[in-house]
Amino acid sequence: MDFLVQEGYPDAAARFAEEANMATNAEDSLIEERVRIKNAIYRGDLQTAIEEINDVDVSILDNDPALIFSLLRLQCVELIKKVAPAPDSEKPALVAAATNFAQCNLSPYTRRDPKFQKDLERAMALLIVPKEVWGSPDLLQSEQFSMFGDLSDLIDASQKMEVAKNVNAAILRLQGRRGGSKIHTILQTRAWAEELAREKRIELPRDLTVSLRDTDSQSGNGDTQMTEDADDALERYTNIPSPR
After folding, report:
1. pLDDT score recorded for residue 151
2. What is the DSSP letter of 226?
């Protein structure tokens, strides 16, 4: 039940509660607003997602520059992804739109905190590296493109899932709920205990197959992570029109 409510499945939670003869205190409107935001991120409509997050509470993004930066970078990547399939006559305008978006809305973050510089550079590398190379580790390791590193995570659906998960957790914290479900916390604790045992060279059973990592603190792709210690928010992100 807790997992279904936290992850935004109100209908499934209601059916589960009915079948298990349990009461649920979940407010459908609160779940549905998180679902709308998550779906907007999944379909690449980041401007709508940002606006709806601000409708919930502007402090969510104001107090977490890494979170708003991750949303804006996804928006920039969506603009870049339109370049390759477009007719040659339209490509210059699309490249200019993506570059201008990055300069106006992402660069200010790199000037205030250099840790975002690498994150931005990885995104802009998609304009330089051909589309057919983006998801090819072999080609990305070639001498011509090795300087950019692996770019596949930027265009993979998992990137949107990671950002949506972080947004969902931020909203839950604002609402006074945990940022993750109980079952997720239990699995994370188990994974922590397993890693600690391995570090101390304690022998573990051979059939101990679960090995989860703390996905709330590490995404594994080298990007700057969310932080609770945030500077004052940049105001630019609330005024950015997103090409439809």
Report:
1. 81
2. P
Instruction: Quick: pLDDT tens for 22-32.
Output: 555 555 557 88
Residue type, 131: K
User: Hey, CA dihedral for 70, 72, 74, 76, is it positive or negative?
Assistant: negative
Q: In angstroms, what CA-CA distances link 27 with 5, 60, 170, 174, 175? A: 9, 20, 17, 15, 11
| Residue 88 pLDDT greater than 90, yes or no | yes
Tokens of 107: 């660069």
Q: Tell me the two tokens of residue 220.
A: 């594994």
Measured N-to-C along each axis, helices 28-42 and 10-20 cross at an angle, to the nearest 10 degrees, of: 140
Is the CB of residue 83 less than 8 Å from the CB of residue 91? yes
Token pair, residue 116, equals 């975002």
Look up residue 165 and give its two tokens. 């998960």
Phi/psi for 18 (5° steps) reads -65, -45
At which residue do the structure tokens 């945990």 appear?
178
Domain-wise residue ranges, the chain: 2-180+216-239
Q: CA torsion sign, 123 to 46 to 69 to 97?
A: positive
Judged by DSSP in three states, 97 sits in: helix
| Number of Cβ atoms within 10 Å of the Cβ of 190 | 14
